[in-house]
Amino acid sequence: MDIFSKIQKSMGPLGQHMKEAHGYFTFPKLEGDIHPKMKFRGKEVLTWSLNNYIGLANHPEVRKTDAEAAKEYGLAYPMGARMMSGQTSKHEELENKLAEFVNKNDAFLLNFGYQGMVSIIDTLVSRNDVIVYDSESHACIMDGIFLHKAKGGKSFVFAHNDIEKCEKMLGFATKRAQETGGGILVITEGVFGMAGDLGKLKEIVELKEKFNFRLLVDDAHGFGTMGESGAGTGEHLGVQDGIDVYFATFAKAMAGIGAFVASSEEVVNFLRYNMRSQTFAKSLPMPIVMGSLKRLELLQNEKHLKENLWKIVNALQSGLRDAGFNLGATESPVTPVYLSGSIPEGTNITMDLRENYNVFCSIVVYPVIPKGQLLLRLIPTAMHTLEDVEYTINAFKAVHKKLINGEYQAEKIAPV
Description:
α4 packs parallel to α12 and α14 packs across α15. The chain is α/β, with parallel strands linked by helices.
């Protein structure tokens, strides 16, 4: 059989809607400066889909640093992987400052967040080790676990944020680890990026009194947004010391690209010398490193940015809740609005918001969430205004009324 023949039969659960969705619901093009108001298909829309949490993407000092670094270094320097010929004092400086900021002994830069998490898991655990993880872990965590299983490793999953189930799985994992002579790695998230709720970090750390394990936390959405200083969800919950391996990306609050992992000096050095995705990949270009140094500086020093983010978050979430919307258990800037309806109803709501109310937000449908559920996901930023919030809440009220009245019912997704 031709390996491509299966493509003709099925494009996958999301790809099956490609003809109707491409360029509109999937792979949409937002154009112009990164800002709450951008262009979509030639018209200005109020945008709630960018992870530019504290507004650094177009901060004048960031733009200046990015431009000057690109002019001075170009995008090629340094050439080669870090281990061979891609090391610079600026890469080391950024690592040291990140480690200090998140209260760890050392840190290691990663080229990409998704690839980085997959590689961290692949490097830390052997086939004899056991992974215990939250059922709603991000795809990058799941892919890391799939690699672990491919090597013959064992994993146990607990229902989302269910500490009783986590404890039960740790019991199974302990028995397995005793049989294999391996250790246990628990993996969860600081902020779950789809629902916005926080991982039960405090409760998991407390389980260390009963079980012998290490804790890896993906805090992509918490870094820069949570905690008094912005150092993340561990700081916010007062358990940063209990997190053994801390991971965050630059793609959210830092408005850049790349990521880092922080831990003890011994663990970071082990990762530094054994992470295949970094050993065999070119070093982060100097403009990205210089830009990240400036972003970290602003994240730490311009406190009003995070304060303004939370002013917008609180206004948006309280306004939506007061209007009767279900936001689930979010405790972070991530703002999910849960509705009941079919996929065609969801796409019709989204089109109405974009075309008639000029509000652009992301829609999430089955198979990402259960059938019959719709999720409109809003990402507030420090750059949004209270006027933006009021306008959006009124738009959501209007479309919700239409949904209840059956105005969005359809047999299938309409072509766009």
